[in-house]
Amino acid sequence: MRFSPLITELIDAFKCLPGVGQKSAQRMAFQLLERNRDGALTLSKALHNAMEHVQHCSQCRTFTETHLCDICGNGKRQQSRLLCVVESPQDLHAIEQTAEFKGRYFVLMGHLSPIDGIGPTDLGLDDFNLLLKGGEIDEVILATNPTVEGEATAHYIAQMCSANNVAASRIAHGVPFGGELEYIDGNTLTHAFSGRKTL
Amino acid sequence: MQPIELSAYILHKREYRETSYLVDAFSAEMGKVSFIAKGVRSSKHNLKSLLQPFQPLTLRLQGRHELKNLQDCEANGAALHLQDKALFSGLYLNELLNRLLQVDCAMEQVFSDYHHGLQQLSQQQAIEPILRLFEFSLLIELGYGLSFEQDMAHGENIDPQSFYQWQDDQGFVRMAGISQHKNCFVGAHLLAIAKEDWSTAVLASAKKISRLVLQPLLGRKPLKSRELFIQGVNL
Hints:
The complex is a heterodimer of chains A (199) and B (235).
Chain A: H1 5-14, H2 22-35, H3 37-53, E1 55-56, E2 63-64, H4 70-73, H5 75-78, E3 82-86, H6 89-98, E4 104-107, H7 125-133, E5 139-142, H8 148-163, E6 167-170, H9 186-194
Parallel strand pairs in A: 3-4, 3-5, 5-6
Antiparallel strand pairs in A: 1-2
Helix pairs in contact in A: 1-2
Chain B: E1 4-16, E2 20-27, E3 31-37, E4 57-62, E5 67-75, H1 84-100, H2 108-122, H3 127-141, E6 150-151, E7 156-157, E8 163-167, E9 171-174, E10 184-186, H4 187-194, H5 200-218, H6 224-234
Parallel strand pairs in B: 3-5
Antiparallel strand pairs in B: 1-2, 1-4, 2-3, 4-5, 6-7, 8-9, 8-10
Helix pairs in contact in B: 1-2, 1-3, 1-6, 2-3, 3-5, 4-5
């Protein structure tokens, strides 16, 4: 038996979500039709609004519906001469949660990955270069992920910084807080040793 | 079915589903091999730090199809720590392998050259000779008879004084007369490459040769890591 055209359309639309195949899409569609039409309408409105209006912040490239995001629009933070570079808006959020960092951000929306064909221009590094040349930044903190691609990205940006006489630092990586050395993998431990600090 | 055990390096991985990776690896026993690493991206999984490029691995894979499943993996030595230009060069080697390697075709010599090349890169040795030697060894293993000592078309040894031209199906062919053009090489340079006797001029010729020979294999899509390297150097 085939579903009616509207239901089929709904199921197909759900399949664009990550990790959702035919079966889950079907389950979602019928759940909403049977039990939660209000929720579904709210969802459709929220989806529509977000997709129509959310864009990249013109300064830090994170997602926002305004021209400048909250952080870039905050005068106090704009005066900070520290800039933190992260790979994704989720990373930015994680750092914001710590309330430790009071400076500005730059969100790359990915990392350099030659095999995937992602180069510096895809990460908005042209804009970043202009930011460096603007002379408002004293130090760039490179908070890209501790993966090989993340390292390559950090290194590339560090080179841009040194060409512009801006200091660049990399976040430390090593043993997680509250962790036990016994259970930590060898590579992380090696990093922890090579990045040790004198007390 | 018994799992297959492979010595391998990760070339590239993509996110797949919620918590898995789709991985391309280069193995000594099977050449390029692709597999799914299930659940590895979840926060508690320990294999995340191992499934990285430049980490020698022993993989245990299962499955009859071309796309295998990762059953287990272990470090086969310490990860090679590449920095600066060496890191970009390592990414270049990976992109090259990812583009040129064939599935299910043992490549033990290339594998050992790759391992050796990465070690040299991690020791901050001069980059260009490492890359050229690896490219040439890869080309030879892929079946492109690259001979720096013989002119196959004329059936004679390379003469240091003569000029040679690269031809895709014949290798280096001595040119009649002494007229030079942009894709010709002096015999002395070819012999120096064979002996790994590098000077700036020889390295420049070697680079030109590797570009010429790789060009038809890579097709129209340029290597992104090469662009990245050049942009990085020009900063």
